């Protein structure tokens, strides 16, 4: 592979990681957090 192809793959991999991180953060904001075990009392 040429260095140009390697650079493109590296940029693509970084963009995918960034997008995944952003989607996970957004999902955490939307979903209500599960109750903590300490707050569950029978």
Please characterize this protein's 3D structure.
There is one protein chain. Helix content is 67%, strand content 0%. It has 42 residues and is mainly alpha-helical. The chain has a domain at 3-30. The N and C termini lie far apart (62 Å).
How are the secondary structure elements laid out?
Elements: H1 3-30
Put the structure in a nutshell.
By secondary structure, the chain is mostly helical.
Structural descriptors:
single chain; 42 residues; mainly alpha; 1 helix
Low-confidence stretches: none
Strand content: under 5%
Assign an overall shape. rod-shaped
Radius of gyration: 19 Å
Structural class: mainly alpha
What's the total number of strands? 0
Order of helices and strands: H
- Please give the largest β-sheet: none
The average pLDDT score comes to 85
Through-space gap between termini: 62 Å
DSSP helix count?
1
Question: What's the helical proportion of residues?
Answer: 55-70%
């Amino acid at each position: 592979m040429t260095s140009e192809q390697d650079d493109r793959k590296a940029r693509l991999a970084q963009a995918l990681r960034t997008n995944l991180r952003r989607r996970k953060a957004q999902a955490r904001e939307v979903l209500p957090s599960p109750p903590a075990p300490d707050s569950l009392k029978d």
